[in-house]
Amino acid sequence: MTCIVLDDEELSVNFLVDKNIRKVPYLKLMGTFTNPQEALLFLQTNTVDLIFLDIEMPNFDIDGIDFMKLMKADQRYILVTAHAEYALESYEYNVVDYLRKPYSFDRFAKAVQKAQERIQLPAQAQEISPKLIDSLYVRSDNKKVRMLFDSICYVEADRNYATIFRADDHIATKTTLNKLEGEFPVTHFMRVHKSYIVSLDKIEFVEKDQIGVKRTEGIVMIPLSSLYKKELLQAIEKG
To answer: 2-126 sits in which CATH class?
Structure first.
């Protein structure tokens, strides 16, 4: 599977290539670019299966969204960026997955596997709208439990355990918050604290350093870290 990287930060490019792409034997890197104009020029005479694309490139006239608008409609992308607020807009294009910095190799590998599966689909299958993933399975008390994303209010972590709270109940599972974060759709869930992920749809209000999340029993107050506050407010405004 051929690919290129477009990110205006050289350190991000090097991390993506050296720590991730080179570990996947079926990825063939055709080039790296820190300038979107140079990437566009390359793609005028070359085709690739996949583009690893940053969104914000403040030193240039176009950003990642503009770049995708200039490309052919069937070009596939994995977005690699620290800005989750662009996720909803970017999915208007042929985006396979979204890697939010910082990301692990495991999360990277899942995104690449998803891209490979998309590319290997027969042409007629690609014309059919894919079934949306609406849930995940977690292990609890020696059984796999299906959790609908729409039913989840928030997740609270304690070291290597996480408790997933729904409107009327909760389920504890042995996993890390980082691993769960990679399973949730970024358009509907957001990390708001080192120990919490919340459903954007279940937020009732935000005040200072707390978030009010709605459950059947009433409003639950979730701590909001200053590290995530700006991004959360931007996501709420766009939503």
So the answer is: alpha beta
